[in-house]
Write a structure and sequence with these properties.
The complex is a heterodimer of chains A (about 270) and B (about 90).
Chain A (H helix, E strand, L loop, with lengths): L2 E6 L7 H14 L4 E5 L7 H5 L9 H5 L5 H4 L1 E2 L6 E4 L12 H14 L2 E5 L6 H7 L4 E6 L3 H14 L4 H4 L5 E9 L1 H5 L6 H8 L3 E6 L2 H9 L3 H4 L4 H13 L15 H6 L5
Parallel strand pairs in A: 1-5, 1-6, 2-4, 2-5, 6-7, 7-8
Antiparallel strand pairs in A: 3-4
Chain B lengths: L1 H9 L2 H18 L6 H14 L9 E6 L6 E6 L11
Antiparallel strand pairs in B: 1-2
The chains are: A alpha/beta (about 270), B alpha+beta (about 90).
Chain lengths: ~270, ~90
């Protein structure tokens, strides 16, 4: 049975697209068929983070409006055979997404893939609601920071009211993914602790992704961090989160960065 | 030594990002106002082919690779068999 997952947050810049790419690639590497879908119509970026920006021909809107077949719009990843991307349109706006059209595309994706991972736009408007509408599972990406936690709370409210599951009286499965986490700063009391965020939002924890320079390097190079540097701390954290998503019971730990002498000396240097 | 090598290798991701963005944005700016170019192109090309062959729209694959100086557009049309060619 295919699982439809929405990666959402309310707030922008917390790591939805990075997380969509990293989790999608991690699930695909284990052999599952995965499609990552960009719902950020007008401001697409998942293609860039996946390194497929030069190969986009058709997009979600073309498929929704019947200008292209789904098979024509899907872009097969060059590194992992079972991973595909459905890009968003860069030139249209969110109004081009119709509820019936999206429903049809999601139903078709369910037939073809084990996992359908929808990268939500920021905000709480139509685009974000469209992205979450048909999800079975929601991943709420949150930074340990006050405005992000507040926006996540708002999104959890929407997940419990605006999704198809919620409207049918069922509950959507919600998980917290804490990103850009700095264990040292949390220990010094400069950053909200995991327990604080969990207590406030009261949804189960899917994983903690430590702040890492590898994430920027991965987006610069156009590769999910789990493919580019699988032994790095964020990649290991994402791989564990992917396993939990599949139902494995794993204790949540924050992988530590293994730094060499050189990066310790130069690691903080800017410019 | 290994660390030293990996440090210098690692520091080079920003120029890659810069080049990727330059290529992408050049293409996107050029397309402003012609967002449906590819869909239109597909329709027109298929209309021409359909004059001569019966084609299944499900069996048409279009691939694009946007390069810095040259882009390639690849249109792969599966034609059932030459026997199905329409008599003009």
């Amino acid at each position: 049975m295919a699982k439809v997952v929405v990666v959402t947050s309310g707030k922008g810049g917390v790591g939805k697209t990075t997380s969509t790419a990293a989790l999608g690639a991690a699930l695909a590497q284990e052999g599952a068929t995965v499609v990552v879908v960009d719902f950020d119509v007008g401001l697409r970026n998942l293609d860039l983070v996946m390194g497929a920006e030069r190969r986009v021909v058709f997009d979600l809107i073309n498929v929704v409006q019947g200008d292209a077949r789904l098979s024509q719009a899907l872009i097969r990843d060059k590194r992992v055979e079972t991973l595909s991307l459905l890009p968003a349109s860069q030139t249209r706006d969110k109004d081009a997404l119709t509820q019936e059209g999206v429903q049809k595309v999601i139903a078709e994706l369910r037939e073809k893939f084990d996992w359908v991972i929808c990268d939500s736009p920021a905000g709480i408007e139509k685009g974000a609601v469209m992205a979450m509408r048909h999800a079975d599972i929601a991943i709420v990406v949150t930074n340990p920071e006050v405005s992000s936690v507040r926006d996540s709370d708002r999104i959890i409210g929407l997940l419990d009211s605006k999704t198809e599951k919620a409207e049918n009286g069922a509950r959507i499965d919600k998980h917290l993914l804490l990103t850009r986490y700095d264990p040292a700063r949390a220990a010094r009391g400069e950053m909200l602790k995991t327990e604080d965020v969990l207590e406030i939002l009261s949804i189960p924890l899917l994983g903690i992704i430590p702040e890492s320079e590898e994430v920027l390097r991965a987006s610069n190079l156009g590769s999910p961090v789990t493919l580019l540097s699988p032994t790095s701390s964020p990649a290991r954290a994402y791989a564990d989160a992917a396993k939990r998503l599949r139902g494995e019971q794993l204790e949540v730990v924050v992988p530590l960065e293994r730094k060499g002498l050189i990066s310790r000396l130069f690691g903080r240097k800017v410019a | 030594m290994n660390n030293l090598l990996s440090f210098f290798r690692r520091s080079r991701s920003a120029p890659v990002a810069r080049e990727r963005l330059q290529v992408l944005l050049a293409h996107e700016r050029a397309l402003t106002g012609r967002s449906d170019l590819l869909a239109t192109l597909q329709d027109e090309i298929l209309a021409v082919i359909a004059k001569h062959f019966t084609i299944d729209r499900e069996k048409v694959q279009i691939k694009l690779d946007r390069g810095e100086s040259v882009s390639t557009l690849e249109i792969d049309v599966e034609v059932p068999s030459i026997a199905s060619a329409k008599v003009a």
